[in-house]
Amino acid sequence: MSDSFIPPSYAPKLNLYDTQKAIGLLKRLFEDTLGGSLNLRRVSAPLFVEASTGLNDDLNGVERPVSFDIPAAGRDAQVVHSLAKWKRLALHRYQFSVGEGLYTDMNAIRRDEEPDNLHSVYVDQWDWEKVLAPRDRNEDYLKETVRTIVECICQTQATLRAMFPQLLSLPLVERQVTFVTAQELEDRWPDLSAKEREDAWVKDHPTTFLMGIGGALKSGRPHDGRAPDYDDWALNGDILVWNPVLERAFELSSMGIRVSPESLDRQLTLAGCDDRRSLPFHRMLLSGELPLTIGGGIGQSRLCMFFLGKAHIGEVQASLWPEGMAEAARQCLSKAHYLAKALCAIPGVSLRYPGEYFHEFVTELPRVPEVLEALEQHGILGGLPVEGGILWCATEKVSRAVLDETAAVVKEVLSK
Length: 416
What we know:
Layout: H1 16-38, E1 40-42, E2 48-50, E3 67-70, E4 75-79, H2 84-93, E5 101-109, E6 122-131, H3 139-163, E7 178-181, H4 182-188, H5 194-204, E8 207-211, E9 231-243, E10 248-258, H6 261-270, H7 280-286, E11 293-299, H8 300-308, H9 323-344, E12 350-351, E13 360-364, H10 368-377, E14 384-386, E15 389-393, H11 400-415
Parallel strand pairs: 1-5, 7-8
Antiparallel strand pairs: 2-4, 3-4, 5-6, 6-11, 8-9, 9-10, 10-11, 12-13, 13-15, 14-15
């Protein structure tokens, strides 16, 4: 199942249809709020760009783009990884002024992504970019923009909770943003991995902007990879929140003030990418033809996961997954409902909660100690005793025969 997992006691807050309704509302609300707050106008974005332009983002430098030829045009194209560089060129071509910006509904394919709870080969995000005055190319402006985006997130969550009361059990996003650098985290926890540092910090600081990503830290290693030709590594970062469902730090946005001609020149050399200097986009940037900008990407599926309390990205988007991962999920769901139906057919047994559930559920039933003892005598690991009932769990690994035997043992005990 790759690195995917289902948290203990996980139960979806919304059923399938309400999930789709909430996703549609969430996307409309957030992009309107973001556009108004940052003075952004929506523009149409390309699904693919010409391979020779240098416009496609190189991400960590090892991901392979999906490439294809267009015979009628006599050109080779690449499906975008993101639109960080394209947006900056668009601001130039569309003649946006200082203080104005754009946002797009970006769809991408990242073929080398390792699917898990948070990652898919299909990527959907709001990509945004805004023209800066030279005086605003500083850390204070970056931080103020982060606070504005977090406020947009909080406003969207408030409306969703009003429309879908099932979401009220999820915690509110912390409006107060804590700012910390990747170097500060490495200094504090030098023996932890980058992701472990994030988890340790964000658990106590549930809305964090982690700054300074891409350049080498004192250890000689970067906190995480970042292409050298869009963010300035000294003026960028990730918006992280604490995810209570997955109990880990959860990235919602990667963003930053973009490279100037000077910082691009420096970062290309540091990254060993001097060969890019001859590409059309990079020539324009190095010569000062492109505007100074700030921008980023905000994950649509990530935001949906977080707001709707979902455990896996596959619950909020359509993509392709390793067959073992998808089949295991189907088996968990099917067997849990099979067991619940068999148990609730026994007089005296009923579901405690009528809502949606995945692989765990609680039944009301009498004589809990006797039931669990009888199951143990039959070599069956029973559920967890709770007040007045049992919390059951059925995974893909348990056979139908064991489920049938479980129900038979419970029926025998309660019929005495």
